[in-house]
Amino acid sequence: MKIGYPLILINFKAYSEASGKRGLQLAKVAEKVSKETGITIAVAPQLTDLAFIASQVEIPVFSQHVDDVPPGSYTGHVTLEAVKDAGAVGTMVNHSERRVRADQVDVIVKRARSLGLTTVVCTNTPEVTAAMAALGPDMVAIEPPELIGTGIPVSKAKPEVVTSSVELVKKVNPNVKVLCGAGITVGEDVAAALRLGTVGVLLASGVVKAKDWEKAILDLISPIIKK
Ligand SMILES: O=C[C@H](O)COP(=O)(O)O
């Protein structure tokens, strides 16, 4: 499945609002809006729901995390192969709520590429973003941890973190696309993110915790539809 841009990637995290059947309902809402508007909306369900959700929707589904181990004797680990078998198109890795070491990111990015999986490496500063871009993932997602879950959008509160990341990535590896995340909630936040040079956003609470998921997603993408 080809991933289009701008990309809206909704991370379900470990929120109870998006667990099990509720996770499927949210993924279905994302799929409906995506089909009606032509905007690429991807989801990162909880790992326990990955295969179940990926089998039921036709939008890109990402894993929230993978481990750097190959298939084998690794109890409790999540392999890239298992994520691919589950129907995911790719994986996030190194989220600030699920950090892994840089050498592990390196292994994961290389193995994902050989398996045809798309990688989104999360980062916390422009410098770390540049370092991770050097590893050659498909995307990096810059997220200042202090803004995560606050509703204060990185694209408006810390635009310099986003622009510095975009500039550094251009120098280090211009093939790597940049997303930004943390506090992204409304269309204006997405528009600001795109103006700063990103190709999209990674968000969670603004949608997952919204009372009306469809309304929240439609609001998010409203500036892109109008273009
Ligand atoms: O993966 C998503 C990010 O951590 C942002 O979370 P948030 O949208 O709840 O601030």
The gist of it:
One of its GO terms (biological process) is glyceraldehyde-3-phosphate biosynthetic process. Homotetramer; dimer of dimers. 42% of the residues lie in helices and 15% in strands.
General description of the model:
It is an enzyme of class 5 (isomerase). This protein has 227 residues and is α/β, with parallel strands linked by helices. It has an 8-stranded parallel beta sheet with strand order 2-1-8-7-6-5-4-3. It is built from 10 helices and 8 strands. The chain has one domain (7-226): Aldolase class I (TIM Barrel, Alpha-Beta Barrel). The two termini are 24 Å apart. The chain binds glyceraldehyde-3-phosphate. Glyceraldehyde-3-phosphate binds at residues 11, 95, 143, 148-149, 181-184, 202-206.
What is the count of distinct domains?
Answer: 1
Strand order of the largest sheet: 2-1-8-7-6-5-4-3
Number of helices: 10
CATH topology annotation: TIM Barrel
Order of SSEs, N→C?
Answer: EHEHEHEHEHEHHEHEHH
The CATH architecture is Alpha-Beta Barrel
In terms of DSSP E residues, the strand content is 15-25%
**What is the CA-based Rg, rounded?**
16 Å
EC number: 5.3.1.1
Pathway: Carbohydrate degradation; glycolysis; D-glyceraldehyde 3-phosphate from glycerone phosphate: step 1/1; Carbohydrate biosynthesis; gluconeogenesis
InterPro entries: Aldolase_TIM, TIM_sf, Triosephosphate_isomerase, Triosephosphate_isomerase_arc
Organism: Thermofilum pendens (strain DSM 2475 / Hrk 5)
